[in-house]
Amino acid sequence: MGKIVVKVAGREVFEWSGERREIRDLERRVAKAAKSVQKTSDELCQLTLQSVLAGPGLSADQTVRDMQIGGIAHYLLGMPTGRAGKPGSHGDYVATGTDLVFDLQRGGPGELRIEVTGPADF
Description:
Layout: E1 2-8, E2 11-18, H1 20-36, H2 41-54, H3 62-78, H4 90-94, E3 100-106, E4 112-117
Parallel strand pairs: 1-3
Antiparallel strand pairs: 1-2, 3-4
Helix pairs in contact: 1-2, 1-3, 2-3
């Protein structure tokens, strides 16, 4: 089981851990939530990221907070690694036990930078 740590501008916001089964369950829950508001999963995740980065962070309401964490985790896990020799998505590696840290940084208007760090061999 791997783990992700999500930070915003260097400050830890949440951790999430899971294996392939939990990642698939997360995908289903995000798709269901997106459908309920007539959005795609990607659109819902983008809106969630924007609201968390533009506002005070995660909601104090536990239900909303759980949805925010699920949307952000889903988005980050689904991102391609973009690393030579590491094909696939970040979720492929987390599912097999790799721990990753994602630091989200606001750039210019509408810009999001994501720094991903992990083990030395990642």
